Amino acid sequence: MANYIVKNNGPLQGEVTVSGAKNSVLPLMAATLLCGEPCIIDGVPDLRDVHIMKDILRSLGATVEEIGDDTIKIHAKEIASNEPPRDMVDKMRASFLVMGPLISRTGYGKLHMPGGCSIGERPIDLHLKGFESLEANIYHRAEEIEVVVEKDKLTGKVIYLDFPSVGATENIMMAAVLADGVTNIINAAEEPEIVDLANFLNKMGARIKGAGTESIKIEGVSELHGCRHKVIPDRIEAGTYMMAAAITRGKVIVKNLVPDHMRPIVAKLQECGVKVKLVDMGYEVDAQQAPIVATDIKTLPYPGFPTDIQSPFMALLATARGSSEVVETVFENRFMHVAELNKMGAAITTEDRKANIPGGKTLKGAEVYATDLRGGATMVLAGLVATGETVIKDIYHIERGYEKFIEKLKGLGAEIKRVEA
Ligand code: UD1
């Protein structure tokens, strides 16, 4: 077990380069199960979740090779097993993304209920409802889920999602690409990671239109082929470094991002008084001069404010002038970081899905926990401006999703180290 130890070393300065998106690469890797030819993915971040997905793919019979610094080649020539081992599946919710490709290519998949961050109930009912609409049979056995396609292929249908779930949209898209006929997903998620997956699948020979809107049309094809694709930049990692610049009242250029994906984050930072300027290679975030003032945020599906940046933004608001309100509408239990921020003197109160942040606090170093992936990054940001030393425990959550977090922050002048406990 290791901890992070963070000390305040003043405003962050310099440049940081964003890695490939965790939430994009995981579905892309799962999608390689759809064809018997090799697929090459560039811009793959070195993350715990990516390693878990590699293990899962290998357990199903695929070969996964690292053929460059951040390039992997996956070849699922044969599907040797339709049941990834429970110990792998339990580690990460995104493991359930192999179900769509498995049932699409082989007609059968069996998975243990997926694990991951405990930020809410996170059921998979919408994924299953989608598979059922495509005429698969679902069997729940204790904590296992079996999906069986009785006919030769799944059957294209109109599927309405009660909520624009990212994972359900991805799983249904992957299931539908080899189905018989046309599938329409209505009220689909519109996240950039959905568009990236659709682009990847189309390169494999799929026929998908409308990804990035609330209506996606998938015309089933008889087979897919190998392709090469570069993962989009991680908008959540980019947002985290933008928050790090703001909370330390620093000036940082965050490079390798897609400006369009950052719009809600940029808008809210500007409302707080932070200067955000598009420069050649990314965004320059300058919080050196203006006072940082309170603002309210409400998380929403894309293009609304991302739930994954809610907790880092809350750390910033704790130090802003005036009180702010944060409303979390996507997950029902995404305020676990509040208790940890309060150990540092943030004095935040919550009621149901609303948090009130009084603001104007000088945070104090404390021993705190990374309660989940983004909540963990939040504690690091708080530690960067706290008085004294902040010790962050359970950092395995952070390492699931931030590539070279320590190195990148140190590159901006932060004082942070990883120590074996
Ligand atoms: C993905 C992201 C995660 C992000 C989230 C929302 C990945 C690997 N993870 O998670 O970082 O925070 O999108 O942007 O891409 N829900 C149901 N039934 C379902 C599926 C979801 O009720 O079948 C609910 C969830 O409990 C949650 C909400 O829908 O309250 C959003 O979940 P979803 O969009 O599916 O998120 P994930 O795909 O799990």
Structure description:
The chain has 421 residues and is of the alpha+beta class. Helix content is 31%, strand content 24%. It is built from 14 helices and 23 strands. It has helices spanning 22-31, 48-59, 86-89, 99-106, 125-133, 166-176, 192-203, 235-247, 263-271, 310-318, 336-343, 373-385, 396-399, 405-411; strands at 2-7, 13-17, 38-42, 63-68, 71-75, 108-112, 137-141, 144-148, 158-160, 182-186, 207-209, 215-219, 228-230, 251-255, 275-279, 282-286, 297-298, 324-327, 349-351, 354-357, 367-369, 389-393, 415-420. The chain has a four-stranded mixed sheet with strand order 21-22-1-23, covered by helices on one side. It has a four-stranded mixed sheet with strand order 2-14-16-15. It has a four-stranded mixed sheet with strand order 4-5-3-13. Bound molecules: uridine-diphosphate-N-acetylglucosamine (UD1). Uridine-diphosphate-N-acetylglucosamine (UD1) binds at residues 23, 26, 93-94, 120-127, 163, 165-168, 189, 193, 307-308, 330-331. The site of uridine-diphosphate-N-acetylglucosamine has 23 residues, from helix 1, helix 5 and helix 6.
